[in-house]
């Protein structure tokens, strides 16, 4: 899987929009970009996945520029419950692909 | 209920003992994974399996053994537990065409004393 680079930590206040950027310079043509969220004492949970341009769901938006060498997870109007670790993964449909997690970005939301 | 479950949730064992962590999923997902998570290290892949009877080592496989005789089960065995294997273990599965959309179990907290 392509190696990813994310900030180690970010701080925000309730109600703000948070953007977490992930760099993946070696992304392959058939790789997708996926973000996971992990709360303390729980397993990671899938948030959003995309290939190019913009993807939006009820939780977040994912922005991917044309060169796909980076991506930005956008969380609108965060609340205290969005405090978690966010992981960016890059991978495709190759048989035997293994999910490799980096250390993620610890987001702390304060009131 | 459909899902992925791990057992036990908590386990305390002694150094040198063999211990097996269980993982069961009800979706018939092809791919299953085992991770360990320690403070400061994030999630590290131990083993993964692409299908029944097909397994591959991950980043930190030493001291661990897996088997996959049935699609729905993926047990992880610590052959001779060491204190360094004290950790939280997560199992995951995925089966869709976009293999990075994985579902995780609730974790097993293992303490080796």
What descriptors fit this protein?
heterodimer, A: 111 residues, mainly beta, four-stranded antiparallel sheet, B: 113 residues
Question: How would you characterize the overall build of this protein?
Answer:
The complex is a heterodimer of chains A (111) and B (113). With 111 residues, chain A is an all-beta fold. In chain A, 0% of the residues lie in helices and 47% in strands. Chain A is built from no helices and 9 strands. Chain A is globular, with a radius of gyration of 13 Å. In chain B, strands 2, 4, 5, 6, 9, 10 and 11 form a 7-stranded mixed sheet that branches. Chain B has a 4-stranded antiparallel sheet with strand order 1-3-8-7, with no helix packed on it. Chain B has 113 residues and is mainly β. In chain B, strand 9 and strand 10 form a beta hairpin. Chain B is globular. Chain B has strands at residues 4-7, 10-13, 19-25, 31-38, 42-51, 54-57, 64-66, 76-78, 87-94, 103-104, 108-112. The chains are: A mainly beta (111), B mainly beta (113). At the A-B interface, strand 4 and strand 8 of A face strand 5, strand 9 and strand 10 of B.
Q: Helix share of residues of chain A?
A: under 10%
Following the backbone from N to C, one meets helices and strands of chain B in this order, namely EEEEEEEEEEE
Mean pLDDT level of chain B: 92
Element string of chain A (H = helix, E = strand): EEEEEEEEE
- Order of strands in the sheet with the most strands of chain A? 1-9-8-3-4
Oligomeric assembly: heterodimer
Of all chain pairs, the largest interface belongs to:
A-B, 26 and 26 residues
Largest sheet of chain B: 7 strands, mixed
Sheet-strand content of chain A, in percent, reads over 45%
The count of helical stretches of chain B stands at 0
Molecular shape of chain A: globular
Helix content of chain B: under 10%
Q: Compute the gyration radius of chain A: what is it?
A: 13 Å
The CA-CA distance between the termini of chain B, in Å, is: 35 Å
Low-confidence stretches of chain B: none
Q: Major beta sheet of chain A, specifics? A: 5 strands, mixed
